[in-house]
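Q: What would this complex look like in 3D?
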Amino acid sequence: MGVLKTFVLGGIHPEENKLSSNAPIEALPVPEQAIIPLGQNLGAPSKPVVNKGDKVKTGQLIAEAAGFISANIHSPVSGTVLKIDNVLDMTGFRRPGVVIKTEGDEWDENIDRSGDLITEINYTSEEIIEKIKQAGIVGMGGATFPTYVKLMPPPGKKAEYVIINGVECEPYLTADHRLMLEKGREIIIGTKILMKALKVDKAVIGIENNKPDAINHLTELTKNEENITVVPLKVKYPQGGEKQLIKAVFNREVPSGKLPIEVGCVVQNVGTTFAVYEAIQKNKPLFERVVTVTGKSVKKPSNFLARIGTPINKLVEAAEGLPEDTGKIIGGGPMMGKALPSLDIPVVKGSSGVLLMREPESHRNPESPCIRCSKCTNVCPMGLEPFLLAKASKVGRYDIVENEKVMDCIECGSCQYTCPANIPLLDYLRLGKNKVGNIIRNRRKK
Amino acid sequence: MTMFTIAGSPHLHGDDSTKKIMYGVVIAMIPAMLVSIYYFDFNAIRVLLLAILSSLFFEWVIQKYLIKGPVTITDGSALVTGILLAFNVPTNLPGWMVIVGALVAIGMAKLSFGGLGKNIFNPALVARVFLLISFPVEMTSWPKPMPVTEGLFADVITGPTPLGVLKEGLRAGDSISKLQSELPGYVDYLIGQMGGSMGEISAIALILGGIYMLWKKIITWEIPVSILVTVFVFSGILWMVNPEKYIDPVFHLLTGGLLLGAIFMATDMVTSPMTRGGQLLFGFGIGLLTILIRIWGAYPEGVSFAILLMNSAVPLINKGFKPRRFGVKPGVQLGS
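A: Here is my prediction, written as structure tokens for the whole assembly.
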């Protein structure tokens, strides 16, 4: 196979701990009550279009996009709208959401529930984009950016390649891995749909070398597809970052402050690609997804197909219960996921996993002075100097923070992972990003 | 209700720590320690213990009673400073001078700047230079290495270092070929058969320590390699110009404190640059200054001065040498 491709700058090798990689995707029962936060995507929260007491079917629109960067939300269950009120979401805040009491599981009649594989793509580029928009699809790797927006390059920009992101570089997570193994054909068709939408004739699927079965399976499936190539990649975190993946696959660097389209690439996660297949070929909007439930003490590390709005405790129960030594619950992977305050928080479109961390691993080690070892600088995949950005953020020198390119930080956490002095570097970098972001917005207003 | 820990990502941490790094350096110094105990027996142990204990003591007493802050003597950094201080003095140095050196290293060069991570100069080197200037006779009377196997408690014979012999000889008008016949051979330099400070005598022991630190990723190759290459190339050019006036580059590499300095002192994380480019320039500067001082300076040896001078340039180097930013064309970033 020769030398495997990867990105150049920085990167780390955390323990992989892919405990659930052999657990087939298992459909979870429909929850008795679905809690659907309205702010599930990057951008504006959606606007509800149902009222208390309304009857809804599974797959029926319940909230619509509020603006360009926003997304529709469809009911994940059939039943009665119990209330539209503040619900606890991923952020730990109570924010608007729709609560639906489940009655049976009656699907919207337009959805094709058969298991047939539909290979023919009978839509134009515009129709595909519109359908993806209607289906409420967002980036399912965790960033939750509305997918249809990525399929409409700004004037003057042209896409050359679709890159399907099957890297799954986060330790523990296996949802994308299982999806590639079990829904490979659908993902290939989804890839072709995305190619058609973007009017490009080349696509690559990037997969890290720790998933040889997925690489082999998709390579086999694309054997007769001249325009789709599977690219095995050397294992290195954060290769699943768009900019790192493009660099690894094509050796192109997205300029600082720009989007991947600048170098002719559009990156879509495999989960998103599968959702695109379902939306276009099966008329099925995004209301369920694969979620990994895992952790070193979890009895049955699993991959569940769960409806959006299912409380996390249902997933944990299905993985044979909350281990007694659980100290931290993480929504997503251990490097970029969010620590959740409660098990009542529901699965949302961006939920790639639920990681139950053991108590002793749930705490940070005590912080000690920076010894200027420069390890944070060496591992930063964006070529930043986290020690400097953190220090400048700490003392409020946001001019330095901005000049030293804090806005390029992808929040991968490699710096903090590596720091021998246990300095919460990413906390300070986020502070800096937030402040500098405000400064830039205010400057533009003037 | 069960309470779960909430914190920002990342939720994983690698297994590196300041303590691990410091104790890793201590392990890397063990070969050189053993060599000096072999050649200087009890005197080496005496100086080592005095330097370590007084460094730890001063760190403890100053942090507890003067600064009234947390005491960090277990983090290993004072231990490293103590051993390096011992490595940088002759083994027959009076005990009280070693103690003064520890006070200068810990009190003046480290804690007065704010403690670990905040000092500009390498503490052990500040102490060495302080002692050299204050007690020039004691600091340059080097005991001759005498293996323990040839008898303990033998009378200590002192003599000059090879670099000292060279400097004096050249001053007296001797030629290199004449001087070389009086000097020990390369094999002696490798195993430690030469006069010098406690830790600098054996090239092999120091290189072993360096390899260990590279393997454990405590240091990177940039600083030691750039120092050694600069010294080799610079002294090599001079040697080719006039081999009767300038000694060969291998001599420069193996004698004096060059390997100790390049492997253990210049690589001190706190006082060296943060980026690869900066580290290469830093090493180049040290190599250049070392040869300048050795050949044209008043002192026979120049490694300590060279490192301290370059330490003072580190903040400036850090400003000029930024890592290669992702998505920014090289060169655009400089001077912003």
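A: To summarize the key features: Chain A touches chain B through 71 residues (CB under 8 Å). The radius of gyration of chain A is 21 Å.
Q: Very helpful, thank you.
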